[in-house]
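Structure first, sequence second, as always.
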């Protein structure tokens, strides 16, 4: 059926508007930065205060997006003396420019000087640049306002097995996680070889409580769909060489909770 020209134009405009609204706001070159700070002895609270009162605001001023801030939940992982946070940058080049601007910012320099009058606040810093996988979930997935427990998991794949590991997560694992009550958040690969590019998968999960996490993992391990997927994917050997897990609790100033 032939539509009048005006109706054809309106239909085309509506189609383009719909596509535009559905398009991701994130640039294709966007990178994330996972940073881990170990506080100097006795300086954990002062470090958090500096982030709460100054650092996060100054990050945003210089184009960095504050995704989430967490503290290690267990003493064995560093407890309240270890701050783990995630930033988003539009690109690796913009990340470099943002950090240069931040470090040169007079407000940052004043805040750093005042906060370190009694000594340095940070004993160690680790930074890992990440790209999102094609099966990631939004880090800001709605939780209805309730505070949650988070888990940061790092998988080092067996040699040559990262594509198969990714495929298992994409096609099976994430759906089984969700069925067991886990919230899938971001799934990432490190960008740089020294950080595990081509060998490592890093991801975040969330749970209503630590008890719920334990129950969910038990249900997952016993789930027939998981047993079947693992058996099928490991006919030629295990896909993982190393798995580490750190439970996290959100900092009071974290956007994601």
């Amino acid at each position: 059926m032939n539509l009048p020209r005006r109706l054809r134009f309106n239909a085309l405009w509506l189609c383009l508007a719909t596509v535009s609204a559905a398009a991701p706001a994130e640039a294709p070159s966007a990178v994330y930065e996972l940073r881990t700070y170990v506080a100097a002895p006795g300086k954990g609270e002062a470090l958090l205060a500096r982030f709460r009162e100054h650092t996060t605001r100054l990050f945003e001023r210089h184009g960095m997006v504050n995704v989430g801030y967490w503290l290690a939940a267990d003493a064995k992982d560093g407890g309240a003396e270890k701050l783990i946070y995630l930033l988003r940058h539009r690109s690796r080049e913009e990340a470099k420019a943002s950090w240069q601007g931040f470090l040169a910012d007079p407000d940052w320099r004043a805040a750093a000087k005042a906060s370190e009058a009694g000594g340095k606040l940070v004993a160690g810093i680790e930074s890992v640049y990440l790209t999102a996988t094609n099966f990631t979930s939004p880090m800001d997935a709605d939780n209805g306002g309730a505070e949650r427990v988070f888990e940061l998991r790092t998988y080092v794949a067996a040699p040559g097995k990262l594509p198969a590991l990714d495929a298992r997560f994409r096609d099976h694992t994430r759906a089984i996680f969700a069925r067991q009550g886990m919230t899938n958040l971001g799934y990432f690969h490190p960008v740089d070889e020294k950080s595990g590019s081509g060998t490592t998968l890093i991801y975040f999960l969330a749970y209503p409580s630590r008890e719920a996490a334990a129950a969910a993992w038990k249900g997952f391990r016993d789930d027939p769909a998981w047993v079947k997927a693992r058996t099928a994917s490991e006919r030629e050997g295990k896909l993982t060489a190393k798995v580490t897990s750190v439970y996290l609790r959100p900092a009071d100033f974290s956007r994601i909770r």
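Margin note: Helices lie at 5-22, 44-61, 92-104, 106-115, 162-179, 210-222, 224-233.
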